[in-house]
Structure to design on (251 residues):
């Protein structure tokens, strides 16, 4: 059976002498793995299609009950070539695709998540849009779409308002107020202003990111909070390769 999907390349793996195994996230069927035979050959006309972050239209042969399908043909929808002009933006785009790949289940169709991914890569490739803000928006909207988004208004224990901030420990699934939180060496405190920004990003449409302004200390705090929270709720995100480069940029 021949199928056609709209998809974004998440990662690739060389296979044999001239082939590749491509992992994509599609609008129609969710995560999809294809084997593309001969695409690494010097004569291949589609070799450039399979860079991570490329947005494609793909035709493939579907084999029932198989986790690996056969690539037939494809064409580029959007290369997001602006990413290649800025190392910081390219790094964040790589974090985006790896974070999504590690957060989703196989055969889980989620058109809204596909659109979020495509819109985020478009924002990251636009030099007029803050790359950090585009990433923060993606990160929180991803958690929201998956049902893991942080609740930042009230303490998870006593429900008291977190107007002045809240704390999160390594073993804490949610934010707690000063009275309820048991301090430890690994606890982090998230200020009220960072929680307000988090709530703003959760409610935003993505078109008003220019209103967010953070100093270097606040940026570091938001990064720490988002990743601490994500590692707890989505354990498969621990050890992400792209995060090593990200820490060099924002660590």
């Amino acid at each position: 059976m021949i199928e056609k999907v709209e998809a974004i390349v998440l990662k690739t793996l060389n296979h044999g002498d001239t082939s590749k195994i491509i992992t994509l996230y599609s609008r129609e069927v969710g995560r999809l793995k294809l084997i593309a035979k001969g695409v690494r050959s010097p004569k291949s006309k589609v070799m450039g299609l399979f860079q991570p972050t490329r947005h494609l239209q793909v035709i493939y042969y579907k084999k029932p009950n198989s986790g690996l399908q056969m690539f037939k043909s494809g064409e580029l929808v959007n290369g997001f070539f602006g990413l290649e002009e800025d190392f910081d933006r390219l790094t964040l785009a790589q974090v985006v695709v790896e974070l999504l790949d590690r957060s989703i289940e196989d055969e889980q169709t989620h058109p809204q998540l596909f659109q979020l991914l495509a819109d985020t890569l478009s924002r990251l490739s636009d030099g007029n849009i803050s790359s950090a803000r585009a990433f923060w928006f993606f990160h929180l909207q991803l958690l929201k779409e998956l049902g893991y988004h942080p609740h930042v208004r009230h303490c998870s224990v006593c429900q008291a308002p977190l107007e002045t901030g809240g704390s999160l420990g390594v073993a804490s699934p949610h934010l707690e107020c000063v009275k309820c939180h048991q301090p430890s060496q690994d606890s982090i405190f998230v200020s009220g202003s960072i929680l307000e920004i988090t709530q703003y990003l959760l409610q935003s449409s993505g078109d008003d990111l220019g209103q967010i302004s953070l100093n270097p200390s606040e940026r570091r705090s938001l990064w720490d909070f988002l990743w601490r929270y994500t590692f707890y709720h989505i354990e498969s995100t621990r050890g992400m390769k792209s995060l090593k480069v990200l820490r060099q940029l924002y660590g």
The chain has two domains: 2-78, 81-250. Strands lie at 2-15, 19-26, 30-36, 55-61, 69-78, 165-168, 188-191.
